[in-house]
Description:
Helix content is 17%, strand content 34%. Strands 1, 2, 3, 4, 5, 6, 7, 8, 9, 10 and 11 form an eleven-stranded antiparallel sheet that branches. Helix 2 packs antiparallel against helix 3. It is an alpha+beta fold and 226 residues long.
Amino acid sequence: MKKITLLIAFACLTTAMQAKIYVPGDRTFYPARIILQDGESFECLVRIPTFPDNAVFYKMDASSKVIKQTLKQRDEPSPIRYILFMPVDDEPFLIEYIRRIDDIDNVMKKKPKMYNTWNQVLIAGPVSLYTNYFGTSGTIKHLGAVHYVAKREGEHGVPMYYKNLTVENFRRKPKERKNKNFHKYAAAYFADYPELAEKIVLKLPGYETQDIVEIVREYNAKMSTN
């Protein structure tokens, strides 16, 4: 195993900033580097973890036996902090095991439901932005749902945007759940940048829930110059 400091691991996050959103459930084993909580790392082949069991399946090479890193409970800490996927014919992307509020509808609650899960890193900075993809099945055809989650180092993640891709019987267009409380709690979340918070409260164009990527980038650019 090769020793990697958390500083180097954090630098790896920037490689994922422009990556497309990954889709759990893909049973392909991709070339990857597993980075443990203590900074140790090793290269292997890894399958993208799925929700809600969060188990990590990996093998040291194509002919090796599959190893399963099981998490017995959704709130159980993981010995793995990051997995940096390096597809042969695609951009690398990085996922991190974080603790977060479960849903945008619960952000305003005093004691929101929390869980740990794998999230893809889209932006790394003073506020990092993550996303994860949920696919389900049932009588209603469900293409999946994408959560966008903001998180500061040492804090839990806060869902900011939920993009629902449900198509009933493949007749309806994809829907997006409305985040009615976004302007209130997003302004509070970014309150240390008053000008940005004011734009969110005033619901100016470009500062709505679906603009969370640009909002986080603007916030990070400001904080990086302070």
